[in-house]
UniProtKB/TrEMBL annotation, chain A:
Sdz-33 F-box domain mapped to chain residues: 230-267
Record domain F-box: where: 5-39
Domain of life: Eukaryota
InterPro entries in the record: F-box_dom, F-box_Sdz-33
Any single Pfam family the record assigns to this protein: FBA_2
Protein name: F-box domain-containing protein
UniProtKB/TrEMBL annotation, chain B:
GO biological process, one term: ubiquitin-dependent protein catabolic process
UniProt xrefs under SUPFAM superfamilies: POZ domain, Skp1 dimerisation domain-like
Ranges in coiled-coil conformation: none
Domain SKP1 component dimerisation: 113-159
Organism from which the protein derives: Caenorhabditis remanei
Keyword presence, Cytoplasm: no
SKP1 component POZ domain mapped to chain residues: 14-69
Family affiliation: Belongs to the SKP1 family.
Keywords: Ubl conjugation pathway
Protein name: Skp1-related protein
Highest taxon, organism lineage: Eukaryota
Amino acid sequence: MPLKFLSFPNLIQEYILKNMELCEVFMMSLVSKKTKYCSIRARIKIPKILFNIRKKAQSIRIGIDEKKMKTKTIIRLWEVRKLKTRRAVRIKIGDDFEDLAKIRSQESQTNEQLCLIKVECIDETLMKGLYDHFKSLFCESKSNSLWMETSMLFSIEKLPIYENVDKIFLTGESESADAKDFESFITRYPNLDSLRIQPEIIGELDVVIDAQKVRLTNAGKFGTSLLEKFDGRHLLFSKWIVEEKQLNEFIKKWMKGEGYHNLETIQATLILNWNIRMDDVVNELETERFDRTKRPEHFNIDNETLFGFYSPPVSFAGNDTYDVIRESDGKRASVRASTNSFWFAVWNAGF
Amino acid sequence: MTSPASSSEVKYLIESSEGNTFDVSGAALRQSNTFNAMFLNIGADGPIPFTDYNEATLKKVFEYCEHSVNEENYSGPKHQDDLSKWDLNFFNEMDQKMFIDVINASNFLDIERLTSYCCERIARMLRGKNTQEMIKVITLPTAEELEAKQKVEEKKAAAAKKVAEKAAETAEKTETLEELPVQQLVQTTRNKLTRKYLSFSNE
């Protein structure tokens, strides 16, 4: 006797769907219009989503262990040069995309099921359609992540805006991007919790970055431009090119309360052979030396703040350390520069 | 035989679609939320009619309930891998028809544990399948079948339209025919009267 899924009562259909892997629910929704509506009706909740957007391959993953940054792929979209028509089916995703594709369930290296979709061309219609389809099926989490290849910045206007994204990772360490392209990308995602940028960004920034924490792997001169427009809490720079005068300006601005009201830490490594003369950094600024009665020696920065990287407590007690006070509220910050590194940390009242 | 007092020794009579009755313990029946809502507090005079389901299906469902009487309270779905040997035998014994009937009966009786296990079993049938294989498992019409069905429906609609048009045409004609005898009658009567009048006047 055939197993007629659609003849089951709605509740049973929902129970069945809720017992399925998310990738299978997604595949069921591609089978027919009716199964799509069944899947929508089941209102399946999913944990944090990670959209991994690359030119030739994309994936939608869900977070299964946030602390260990462990994710599980649900859908993988692959662009192939020539799609073999054997076993290929015509699929309709979203309102506008309709084309031949190969869809199958695949077991990942960690023995988890995922839905693999092979197509000849991943274009904006497919990307938008896939996102709309996915969004209609599952109850999304309020905190999603977006990993995007730098090369995608050139066609950013054509890409869908992924909702509830609060973490962005722009990948491509050996690549570079124009500051204007980066701006038009970042303005689409306000209120970010974290922003991690691997490529080198070339040019000046005109918009305020309100992400709570930012990490630049190739900070270069752009790091200084970003610092000027930064309104968040933590900055983590690598390969930064900065001059003493610029740091002096930054500290002056902080002391006068003209900006950086939320800033808590800056940790930076400079490009090779680039040293900072601390005396020039604090030139003409009212500073204090380390006083054990006023603050502790070490400053702890947690892993989460540092994008999962561990950092030992930073010592602010040596000759290369100065304390500065903010005029408006009397908050104390410590500045330290040593060979190739720069630190700035604002002490909380209770430390 | 049936009473509001719900002790495990109390037996209830269940009536199936064939009109047959059989005993089920109160403890087993209490796993059915439908039963709890309908009969537990008020009791039932005579057999409880679950006449949408046949005896074999109901017996199978209550066999499961009787078995799980002593298991701990249901707390969410259990993975199939964690099922006991008895549970596995219970499911493996059934053919597909019985399995579907059991799901439907279990859903009607609102027996969470059984419904959940059955649904997980179906979900397992779909594991690792691609969309075409899924269509086969859940017996969905393929795109070609849908197209053929649509063509048949279109043909049927066209035929129905033709029939409706013909009927309308016939009705129009009948209307004219129905009108004719009346007019003819009036005319004939008028002619007759005229002739009579003329004959009178001639006399």
